[in-house]
Design goal:
Helix 8 crosses helix 10. The longest helix has 33 residues, at 3-35. By secondary structure, the protein is mainly α. It has helices at residues 3-35, 41-51, 57-66, 70-78, 85-93, 102-118, 120-128, 134-151, 153-162, 165-171, 184-191, 197-203, 206-215, 217-225, 234-246, 251-261, 270-282, 284-291, 298-307, 316-323, 329-343, 348-355, 362-381. It has 23 helices and no strands. The chain is flat and about 75 Å long.
């Protein structure tokens, strides 16, 4: 036997077998695409992931439309993928009328920003088509606006003027607007020119108060006082309190602002919680003196919700006990769960000791149980 020839043949077969297997996978995937029938996850997952880079852009796009569960495929192939932005946009666009995983919505935001780098109008139109991806659409529009603002703030301002009510609804509540460097009064005049009534109503509520509050608390208060009573609210009051805290106004003086200067419609017990978050850490002694005089009720609840866990250093056992005294059930359970979640980062065993007895929902308990186990494993491996 010619052993040299035998070894050459054996080596050649070993090198070409993966190529044959790849060709076979590619043929199978191409056949599924041509058949045009729905592709299940079990049927197509490994197959598509092994050959997607060798498919043509049209074949990849067609395959995505056929998969019964395309979200997982998109997360696998589009994060940090070498595909051109327009191809990624075309693939994601196939899902524009359906609900999708949060990770896929994050991809929409990423691609919207990439598209905006080349064509702002195209990016805006593309991301606006996603009717059921609320987070992706809202944050995507915000990303497009930010790219426009980074290029030229006047371009972003022109785009905002043209926003319709649907685009306004998408971005409100999910994302931020670029910060245009102009006086509050100038910004107010610009907003009044916007086409979207929804956007005008929103921006002339607390966001414009924030703009005035950055200039001075007095300017913000003047704006609030100039509004009709039914247009005032506690969100606006929060901007005034923020402004006062930024200027290091004494905490007792801020209480006077809340109780005697803000109009009734702009006050709420939440403002005391906002104040307490700063006060407890800045001047613990005077804060404790004030806090000890609060009677059980909504105001005390908001104060505890505001400061517990934010004072430094934190006594987590005390924080846990205090959170448990909140009367409002939803706020109590939320704060107790938050305290245990923060506590377990430094002492998972101590937090675990309270987990089963804690007054929280079973869903919160289940989530914390997994989190604590993960923290223990991490700490043990260090």
């Amino acid at each position: 036997m010619n052993y040299r020839r035998f070894l050459q043949c054996l080596l050649g077969c070993a090198l070409t077998m993966p190529l044959y297997a790849m060709d076979n996978d590619l043929q199978q995937m191409s056949a599924l695409i041509k058949a045009g029938q729905p592709i299940s996850r079990d049927e197509g997952e490994k197959l598509f992931l092994s050959v997607h880079a060798d498919l043509t852009p049209d074949e990849r796009l067609k395959a995505i439309t056929l998969f019964e569960e395309p979200d997982w495929i998109l997360l696998e192939i589009l994060y940090e993928s070498p595909y051109a932005t327009k191809e990624k946009a075309a693939i994601l666009g196939q899902l524009q009328n359906r609900e999708m995983e949060f990770g896929v919505e994050e991809l929409i935001v990423e691609v919207a920003a990439e598209l905006a780098g080349a064509d702002l109008d195209e990016a805006r139109k593309w991301v606006s088509r996603f009717s059921k991806a609320e987070y992706g659409k809202g944050c995507g529009l915000s990303a497009v606006l930010q790219v426009a603002h980074d290029k030229d703030p006047t371009v972003a301002l022109t785009m905002l003027r043209k926003f319709n009510d649907a685009e306004a609804d998408a971005i409100i509540g999910y994302a931020d607007f670029p910060d245009f460097e102009m006086t509050a009064s100038a910004w107010q005049a610009e907003v009044n020119q916007f086409q979207s009534k929804r956007l005008k109503e929103f921006l002339l509520d607390w966001p414009i108060v924030f703009k005035y509050a950055k200039e001075s608390p007095e300017a913000a208060l003047d704006y609030i006082n100039g509004l009709p009573a039914d247009k005032r609210n506690a969100r606006q009051g929060r901007q005034v309190v923020w402004s006062l805290l930024q200027r290091k106004v004494s905490h007792t003086e801020i209480i006077d602002w809340i109780e005697n200067k803000l109009p009734t419609e702009a006050r709420s017990d939440e403002l005391y919680g906002q104040l307490a978050t700063d006060w407890a850490g800045a001047d613990p002694e005077s804060f404790q003196e004030w806090f000890s005089k609060l009677k059980p009720g909504p105001r005390r609840d908001e104060v505890i919700f505001g400061f517990v866990g934010h004072d430094r250093p934190v006594d987590w056992q005390e924080a846990y006990t205090l959170a448990g005294t909140i009367i409002n059930q939803e706020k109590r359970q939320t704060k107790v769960a938050w305290v245990l979640g923060a506590w377990q980062r430094s002492d998972p065993l101590a937090a675990e000791d309270h987990l089963e007895e804690a007054d929280i929902t079973e869903r919160m308990r289940s989530h914390l149980r997994r989190t604590i186990e993960s923290t223990k494993k991490r700490l043990n491996s260090e």
